[in-house]
């Protein structure tokens, strides 16, 4: 499984890279702030929402600390997706937040 740390992610965000970030946390966690531009798909809903994702795009998967996103990455990789797990998750992320 590919991984990146928050320093790498912040560098990509600062460079205005076109990123596809999926936040797999629950609704109450997402309400506390998300990485700007991230798409919220709670971990338990990924199988039913696969049609919303494109196997041609790379995705960065994030959760609170990295465990649930690692599970999501394993599942999505098995479905043919190019995914990268954000190590340390939102607990390690100290960049800008977006509230939805």
From TrEMBL:
Residue ranges that the Swiss-Prot or TrEMBL entry lists as coiled coil: none
Q: Sorted alphabetically, which CDD domains does this protein's record hold?
A: RHOD
The record's annotation in InterPro entries points to: GlpE_sulfurtransferase, Rhodanese-like_dom, Rhodanese-like_dom_sf
**Which top-rank group of organisms is this from?**
Bacteria
**Protein name in UniProt:** Rhodanese domain-containing protein
Supply the source organism for this entry. Answer: Lysinibacillus piscis
| All residue ranges annotated as the Rhodanese domain in the record | 15-99
